[in-house]
Amino acid sequence: MMTGSQYIESLRQLKTEVYFMGERVDSVVDHLAIRPHINAAAVTYDLAHDAALGDLARATSHLTGRPINRWTHVPRSQDDLVKKAKMMRAAGRITGTCFQRCVGMDALITLYSVTHDIDQKYGTSY
């Protein structure tokens, strides 16, 4: 699992074309208006490595059996959903701001559900 520092470094490696207020941004990581959001997102990576949180920010992949960051985990039980909510509260308390991952996580969960329904309807298995 990636750490917050690794996440930030991975952003440095991207070849992006980003504009802010009409001006090209040379480095999203170093831009004063963008960096606070990157720092908040980086916290979500670090939480998965925080032993004090236990499995609140980590889960076991039902596909590989390996530990994964809960932000990329598809909830499979009520307990998973409770941990997701508690993890989001913990991240909010730590960052004091939006941590930039909720929409992506919710989209992943929705896609998992919808593609399952499509597979059932058409007899496919992806």
Q: Keywords, please?
A:
two-stranded antiparallel sheet; 126 residues; 4 helices; mainly alpha; globular; single chain; 4-hydroxybutyryl-coa dehydratase, domain 1
Structure description:
The chain has 126 residues and is mainly alpha-helical. The chain has a single domain, classed as 4-hydroxybutyryl-coa dehydratase, domain 1. The chain is 49% helix and 10% strand. It has four helices and four strands; from the N terminus they run αββαββαα. The strands form two sheets. The protein has a two-stranded antiparallel ribbon. Strands 3-4 form a two-stranded antiparallel ribbon. A hairpin with a 6-residue loop joins β3 and β4. The protein starts with a helix and ends with a helix.
How would you summarize the topology of this molecule?
Blueprint: H1 4-13, E1 18-20, E2 23-25, H2 35-47, E3 58-60, E4 67-69, H3 78-95, H4 102-122
Antiparallel strand pairs: 1-2, 3-4
Helix pairs in contact: 1-2
Summarize the structure.
The protein has 126 residues and is mostly helical.
* Strand content bin: 5-15%
Which residues form runs of ≥5 with pLDDT under 50?
none
User: Termini separation (Å)?
Assistant: 24 Å
Main sheet strand line-up: 1-2
Shape: globular
What summary fits the major beta sheet? 2 strands, antiparallel
* Assigned CATH architecture: Orthogonal Bundle
